[in-house]
């Protein structure tokens, strides 16, 4: 977790001013510069680097090569180092990742990101071409923001340092506001500010005095290699290698341990690797709720702690306050965000950072990468395998609670022989939505009532939702297409950016073993029965963890729903805030939300908190979040 920054003067400009600007940008990223910062300048470019040493690098960049003809600033961790060293003919295995980037650029030019595996965001200045070449990793783990004008191009790991540059507008984006309220991070380039953009995942950007060219260098596709006979064994190998890669660079490595399948798998594999190499016990960090609570995962956490040699730290949640430190969180996030539980995650980062942890392994994304396999049910029905479908639905009903006969006959209605004459297209789509991920299924209904109709019309929200918010029926009928659609949507980079900013605030770099390019490609290539079988989603992961995970964790069916905790925290600790924001200060959000719908949702939460509808919770949480952020914007003098 380092920070990059830079300024390219495109049409003249004073180098002295650029030097002052780059220093100011680095000052605004001090939290990313725990081990120092530095900058380099050569007309017309200034590059800065905020250094947090988690990759065994010799010191802060920017680094130069070829007599100063190339310079790079990078926030990166390359996982295929051995392959790159061999292909580039480099014998020194201690060479820094940033140097490997420049050597890869010298060999392959702007195609170099195709040959890279890992998490990266970097910018290379090529003085011979008078071009700045920028790239972001395949999944958007590392952030990259920029502002482009005729006079200059400015970039950084966060938007805040760019906002501090004279001439960069602070007008907020209504497009982004409506997307937040709708739960739709559909635009991979826009940010909260109209003059600042993000470089999308798996894209490069080439900037010269004449043009700014955006290009996609990779797209999410299944592996072309044949799957071995034992898919679980191959998964275990790839997963173990991914965990090992993300433990490279520092001994100060820990892991989140929630007790769920994903975090437990990472913790157990990492702990075994430490033990095999005679390293100290792996530190793990777990949030614990009171015994008997619906959020209590202590039995599963304890099962892992008993089985593996780890140094477990338990963090009591106690009296949860979702809006505690929220002004600071909004400053940290530079705007609103789609993560109501972020304040809980920040407690993990805070505790880990205080204990000297630099790298924290995170199970985020296991559901998406390995896949719950819901599309496999559609595949069985579409192929007319009704007995197999019946067996799978009967097993899956133990997990998802759907009535066996009802769900089975719904599939018969959609895929059975009478589908051509049954005019049930609308009903079929409703059924398809039921089988998809719950969050995605509910979004379509949620935003209509929450958002001011004028805002929805001004920002083309209906068309945007039809393009990006709904999974097309032709996609949901195929597990392979469903899987790829989920991995490709805007929630993936949005989540990484939110978590990156939160972790950086506490001097921690989060790393995600499930988001490994070879592992993702492998999972995409798996047949549906390896993802959903005997009613268990992520079936290949469960089989791969045989003998590694405690059985109670390996085959657990439930996932914790934190909605009740959020509701109790809001109503029990923030009633005064809710009343002020939603009632006395409601005029602030009136241009953006449907106030009558929000106040009605709030009234229902107050009246029956134990029966809170997820839709009402989202109405209230997003409205309060937006109001508090708009207040900050107004105090800074920014405007809509």
In angstroms, what is the radius of gyration? 25 Å
Structural class: alpha+beta
Please state roughly what percent of the residues sit in beta strands, choosing from under 5%, 5-15%, 15-25%, 25-35%, 35-45% or over 45%: 5-15%
**Outline, from the CA principal axes?**
globular
Q: Class of the largest domain in CATH?
A: Alpha Beta
CATH topology name of the largest domain, in short, is Rossmann fold
Number of helices: 28
- Could you give the distance between the termini? 32 Å
- Unreliable sequence segments: 419-428, 434-445
Give the CATH H-level superfamily of the largest domain.
Answer: HUPs
Q: How much is the average pLDDT? A: 90
Main sheet specs: 6 strands, antiparallel
Describe this structure as you would to a colleague.
The chain has 640 residues and is α+β, with helices and mostly antiparallel strands. It has 3 domains: 3-159 and 196-216, Glutamine Phosphoribosylpyrophosphate, subunit 1, domain 1 (4-Layer Sandwich), CATH 3.60.20.10; 231-369 and 491-554, HUPs (Rossmann fold); 563-636, no CATH class. It is 46% helix and 15% strand. It is built from 28 helices and 19 strands. A hairpin with a 2-residue loop joins strand 2 (37-42) and strand 3. The longest helix has 23 residues, at 614-636. The two termini are 32 Å apart. Mean pLDDT is 90; it is low at 419-428 and 434-445.
List keywords for this structure.
globular, 640 residues, alpha+beta, 6-stranded antiparallel sheet
Topology:
Layout: E1 3-9, H1 15-27, E2 37-42, E3 45-50, E4 63-65, E5 70-78, H2 81-88, H3 97-108, E6 118-126, E7 131-136, E8 145-148, E9 152-156, H4 160-163, H5 174-182, E10 197-198, E11 203-207, E12 212-216, H6 231-245, E13 253-256, H7 261-276, E14 282-288, H8 298-307, E15 310-316, H9 326-333, H10 342-354, E16 359-361, H11 366-370, H12 375-382, H13 386-400, H14 404-415, H15 425-435, H16 438-450, H17 453-458, H18 461-469, H19 473-476, H20 479-488, H21 491-505, E17 509-511, H22 517-525, E18 532-533, E19 536-537, H23 539-544, H24 551-554, H25 563-573, H26 575-584, H27 595-607, H28 614-636
Parallel strand pairs: 13-14, 13-16, 14-15, 16-17
Antiparallel strand pairs: 1-3, 1-9, 2-3, 4-5, 5-6, 6-7, 7-11, 8-9, 8-10, 11-12, 18-19
Helix pairs in contact: 2-3, 6-22, 9-28, 10-21, 12-20, 27-28
């Amino acid at each position: 977790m380092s920070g990059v920054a830079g300024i390219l003067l495109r049409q003249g400009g004073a180098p002295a001013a650029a030097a002052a600007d780059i220093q100011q940008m680095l000052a605004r990223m001090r939290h990313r510069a725990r081990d120092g910062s530095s900058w380099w300048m050569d007309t017309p470019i200034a590059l800065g680097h905020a250094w947090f040493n988690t990759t065994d690098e010799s010191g802060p960049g920017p680094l130069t090569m070829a007599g100063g003809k190339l310079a790079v600033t990078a926030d990166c961790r390359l996982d295929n180092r051995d392959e790159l060293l061999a292909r580039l003919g480099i014998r020194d295995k201690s060479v820094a990742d940033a140097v490997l980037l420049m050597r890869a650029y010298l060999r392959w030019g702007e195609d170099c990101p195709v040959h890279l595996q890992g998490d990266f965001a970097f910018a290379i200045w090529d003085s011979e071409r008078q071009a700045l070449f920028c790239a972001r990793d395949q999944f958007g783990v590392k952030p990259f923001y920029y502002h482009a004008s005729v006079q200059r191009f400015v970039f950084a790991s966060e938007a805040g340092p760019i906002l501090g540059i004279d001439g960069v507008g602070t007008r907020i984006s209504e497009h982004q506001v409506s997307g937040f309220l709708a739960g739709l991070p559909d635009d991979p380039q826009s940010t909260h500010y109209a003059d600042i953009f993000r470089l999308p995942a798996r894209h490069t950007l080439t900037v010269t005095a004449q043009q700014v060219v955006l290009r996609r260098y990779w797209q999410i596709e299944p592996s072309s290699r044949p799957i071995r006979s034992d898919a679980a064994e191959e998964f275990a190998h790839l997963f173990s290698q991914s965990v090992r890669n993300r433990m490279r660079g520092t001994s100060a490595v820990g892991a989140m341990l929630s007790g769920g399948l994903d975090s437990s798998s990472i913790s157990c594999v990492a702990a075994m690797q430490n033990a095999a190499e005679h390293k100290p016990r792996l530190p793990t960090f777990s949030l614990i709720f009171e015994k008997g609570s619906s959020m209590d995962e202590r039995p599963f956490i304890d099962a892992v702690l008993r089985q593996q040699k780890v140094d477990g730290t338990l963090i009591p949640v106690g009296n949860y306050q979702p809006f505690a430190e929220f002004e600071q969180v909004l400053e940290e996030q530079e705007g609103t965000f789609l993560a109501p539980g972020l304040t809980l995650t920040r407690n993990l980062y805070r505790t880990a950072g205080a204990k000297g942890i630099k790298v924290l392994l995170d199970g985020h994304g296991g559901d998406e990468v390995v896949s719950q396999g819901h599309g496999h049910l559609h595949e069985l029905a579409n192929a007319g395998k009704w007995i197999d479908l019946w067996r799978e639905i009967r097993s899956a009903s133990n997990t998802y609670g759907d009535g066996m006969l009802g769900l089975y006959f719904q599939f018969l209605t959609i895929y059975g022989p009478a589908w051509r004459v049954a005019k049930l297209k609308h009903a079929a789509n409703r059924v398809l939505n039921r089988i998809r991920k719950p969050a995605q299924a509910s979004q379509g209904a949620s935003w209509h009532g929450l958002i001011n109709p004028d805002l929805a019309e001004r920002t083309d929200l209906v068309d945007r939702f039809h393009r990006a918010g709904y999974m097309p029926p032709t996609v949901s009928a195929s597990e392979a297409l469903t899987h790829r659609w989920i991995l490709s949507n805007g929630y993936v980079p949005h989540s990484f950016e939110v978590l990156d900013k939160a972790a950086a605030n506490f001097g921690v770099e989060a790393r995600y073993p499930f988001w490994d390019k070879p592992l993702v490609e492998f999972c995409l290539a798996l047949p549906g029965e390896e993802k959903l079988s005997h009613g268990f989603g992520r079936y290949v992961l469960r089989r791969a963890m045989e003998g590694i995970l405690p059985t109670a964790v390996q085959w657990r069916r439930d996932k914790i729903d934190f909605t009740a905790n959020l509701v109790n925290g809001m109503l029990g600790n923030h009633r005064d805030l809710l009343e002020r924001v939603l009632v006395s200060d409601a005029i602030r959000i009136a241009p953006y939300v449907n106030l009558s719908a929000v106040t009605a949702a709030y009234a229902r939460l107050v009246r029956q908190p134990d029966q809170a509808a997820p839709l009402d919770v989202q109405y209230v949480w997003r409205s309060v979040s937006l109001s508090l952020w708009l207040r900050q914007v107004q105090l800074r003098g920014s405007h809509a």
